[in-house]
Amino acid sequence: MKYISEFRQPKLVEKIVQRIKRIAQNLEREIKLMEVCGTHAMMILRYGIKQLLPANIKLISGPGCPVCVTPDLYIDKACTYARKGFLIATFGDMMRVPGSNGSLIEEKSKGGKIKVVYSPVDALKLAESFPEEKVVFLGIGFETTAPTVAASVAIAKERKISNYMVLSGHKLIPPAMKALVQGGKVKIDGFLCPGHVSTIIGSKAYEFIAEDYHIPCVVAGFEPVDILQSIYLLLLQISQNEAKVENEYARSVSKEGNLTAKKIMSKVFTKSSSVWRGLGMIEESGLKLKEDYFQHDVEVRFPLEVFSSSVEDKGCRCGEILQGLIEPPQCPLFAKECNPSRPYGPCMVSVEGACNIYYRFGKDRCQDSEVKWKI
Amino acid sequence: MCLAIPVKLVSVEDESTGWVEVGGIKRKVSLLLLPDAKVGDYVLIHAGFAISKVEEKEAKELLDLISNLE
Lengths: 375, 70
Prior knowledge:
The structure holds 2 protein chains of 2 kinds.
Chain A: H1 10-27, E1 31-35, H2 38-46, H3 49-52, E2 57-61, H4 66-69, H5 72-83, E3 87-90, H6 104-109, E4 114-116, H7 120-129, E5 135-139, H8 146-158, E6 164-168, H9 173-183, E7 190-194, H10 195-201, H11 207-213, E8 217-220, H12 224-239, E9 245-247, H13 259-268, E10 269-276, E11 280-289, H14 298-301, H15 318-322, H16 346-349, H17 354-361
Parallel strand pairs in A: 1-2, 1-7, 3-4, 3-5, 5-6, 7-8, 8-9
Antiparallel strand pairs in A: 10-11
Chain B: E1 5-14, E2 17-22, E3 25-30, E4 42-46, E5 49-54, H1 56-67
Antiparallel strand pairs in B: 1-2, 1-4, 2-3, 4-5
């Protein structure tokens, strides 16, 4: 078993779709299911899953793209450190995200020292190889990524690599789901919970959503069979007026998650309030380095002057898209002024951003005729 | 960003490093977050770290369940 092709078999897809259709018919109302993972959003459009669903079952994207929910202020800080001569190491998808005053790729073109790395360990190696440089790794990502960065910081401390620092913009998914539900702007009938975030935090982390807010949750894998089966499980719960957490992705996700990863994450990081693009400030939804690791926290060692709050680009509706309020083609800039070669907002930059995904795969694959567009 | 793919662990170098293979290409990965991974296991790799084991039993159970649907 290779765990990929087996989960793309058309005959299995057909079986699940038939069951979804049967159950959707009996529901007799519009059902909105939200995924909170950029990779889910991409797979759904890439495989045309929306087209397979009955008209009353809507899939909406939530704030599941880490790059997209990162506010302008963070990009501005990273660019400022680059301008001050720090060596910035980052995952590639941060390069073109526009801040209020340019992007990292623009800083690079002006001579800034900016390196794309695949892993925080590669950033650590840079710091080790160039002890004269002040290396700053851009710590962006949810619970999947945070333990890898925590591990790199722990190694740096152990090996006394003092020129390795992190600018932490890590964010946590469950508090954002709670904020979305409490905000009440969009009615969510069920959550497709992010598979890889859940490998770390476990399916247990969503129990409060089911218990306190009576919203069904299913931890979903990423192949077409996984996504459709998870949709089916959600619809089954909805039709029986149940709300519990189910785990469709049991081959990789346990109830408790990855205990080693959770341990290293809580050893290095502590929860803090954090600003999300589109959602604003959410209590205890971010991670910052603990005092023991302050020598690796660039904001503690080399604090910047306080920035004035930045203004997001006029006309860009990333904020609403991240809350599931509108679909990308409903933004007047979409596929016109704003496109992957000249993005206005982060949702068009990241390959996991809803706008970028719609631009690449979404043509003729949207559910509503009014949101179809021409490129 | 939370993209992770199932790959086979082909050798273990020391307690915190191993090699995975996908499509004939080998890559060094950190096993710090998955210390009990064994050679032959399929693991999910994210940002150079193995983060989770892929369990064959659960995968088969799901596929059987769906295959047997009416």
